[in-house]
From TrEMBL:
Origin species: Nocardioides immobilis
Family, similarity comment: Belongs to the alanine racemase family.
Reaction(s) this enzyme catalyzes, per UniProt: L-alanine = D-alanine
GO terms, molecular function: alanine racemase activity; pyridoxal phosphate binding
Residues annotated as transmembrane: none
Superkingdom field: Bacteria
Enzyme Commission number(s) of this protein: 5.1.1.1
UniProt-listed CDD domains: PLPDE_III_AR
Keyword Nucleus applies: no
Protein's name in the database: Alanine racemase
Residue ranges occupied by any Alanine racemase C-terminal domain in the UniProt entry: 264-395
Keywords carried by this UniProt record: Isomerase, Pyridoxal phosphate
Cofactors required: pyridoxal 5'-phosphate
NCBIfam families, sorted: alr
Gene name of the record: alr
Amino acid sequence: MSDHTRGASPPVGPPTTASTPRGELAEIVVNLAAIRHNVRVLRELIGVPLIAVVKADGYGHGMVEAARAAREGGAEWLAAATVAEALQLREAGYAGPLLCWLMLPGTDLERPVEEGIDLSAYSVAELDAIAAAAETVGRRARVQLKVDTGLNRGGAPRSSWLDLFSRARAGERDGTWKITGLWSHFACSDEPAHPANDRQEEAFRAAVALAEDCGLRPELLHLANSAAAVLRPSSRFDAVRCGIAVFGLDPAPGSTPDLGLIPAMTVRTRLALVKELAPGDAVSYGHRWVADRPTTVGLVPLGYGDGIPRHAFHPGPGPSAEVAVGGKRRPIRGTICMDQFMVDLDGEPAGIGDEVVLFGSGPDVPTAQDWAEACGTISYEIVTRIGGRMTRRYVDSEAMP
């Protein structure tokens, strides 16, 4: 078992992991062993190479550390959204297969071409920009073509496929680039029965056929994201892109079988204050919650300045988010503030300094999915937005629940 804090060297002595370190308001604990475990589980299930997506600072888990753990777990590829993210992975020492897909006009493409990063293109204009960079640095670029099959976001629209593929083939013939992949992205894979999934897979197969008719033979065809990788075997093609599942979170709540994935992130702090309320006392801005009985509340020193969703509390229908205090779930009471929020301790013994777990894994601990449901969002947003003034700490423990 190892344990280190972001930006610091691992300690020499045995780590202390029982509670938030003294002097720290809160911490994000990331278990790298869980990431490795999740990748192994996914690789065993899918049977094709896995592209671990570590964009947005590794979904809030720390991009470089998460990428390293994913590779150790068996991920053959890494992927990031932006050129800057991809270059950060190269600067951290990762020399393996790497894809990125978001560029603006004028983005410096010379470095990624030099670094052998696969650049995604979905227009002739982007191919021209890559060609200029490849000519400048004197190196053959690596390019993956992205087609839009129904998400109507990034990707070449069907009307431009022929032009894109023809230009791609011309550049391949003259040695400007190697077309290493062809890919697309599902819109509704977390709803396995949605008819859009069939339409998108059919469209992708049509794109593959047209690319081949144009003389292209991409090394890697990939369509499936985490949900499709698990739930739609026909969409696995040559590889799958897994992001949220790598971090142990359910990509399709209510539809995904129990795979034994383990959430890698735990967020915890300690109570900063405990106080008693009388019936009729109201809590926090707007007095949106009023005690109807003698109540003990605790102050949690985190707020929306740290990525806690302000709508984690709502007085209307449906439960507010919960935290774990003393091994029991406790609901949030009152409006989330920038730096703090209150929880109902329900008369249970609790004191200043007692540990509070916002979400993580294990018995009687709320999950990121629980928070997502309480906030009307998805677990991706919960883990990606969390941070602010928290310290991120890495552990490497096989003793997982």
